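just leaving the lab so this will be short. below you get a single protein, a line of residues and a line of whole numbers that encode the local backbone shape. id like you to explain what the token line says about the fold, in plain words if possible. thanks a lot i owe you, the record is right below:

…
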Amino acid sequence: MLDVLSRHADATQKEKHYEAVIESIEALMGPDTDWLAAMATIVCELHHAFDYYDWTGFYRVVRDEHLQIGPYQGGHGCLDIPFTRGVCGAAARERKTQLVPDVELFPGHIACASSTRSEIVVPFMNPRGEVLAVLDVDSDSEAAFDLIDQAGLERIAKLYSERFPMRPSVQR
């Protein structure tokens, strides 16, 4: 397991740490790893690698325009989120990363935990542009995430999507 990176690390340290985390995730996922085990591995590695990751988890597309909680670490999360609500819904609906330095200023933010101050949500999409899931990371610190976090998490999303291009069956 990697050392935990402090929120106060400089940009170079942070970039190197993401490289190490990505290498670790790739090394842990063997040829028989399925999509759900991969999600659990990604969440575990990320959650324990950064001290400002207070809640880390996936919301999976389980039916049209709806996300349901998947593997996560931290306190309880919201169980079901429509694409029309919250930061996770916005990431899924717009198919782009949502980097939110202050959740209180995000219209329609869903407060699953009252301690959350900032959030980043990255959509995981297949090559056809369909959203498979979103990776949601919450921090109890304001403005905890930056463009380095975004780049690192988007790289992980791309690796996952290349490996698991099909969405598990979606209920209609």
In short: The chain has one domain: 11-163.
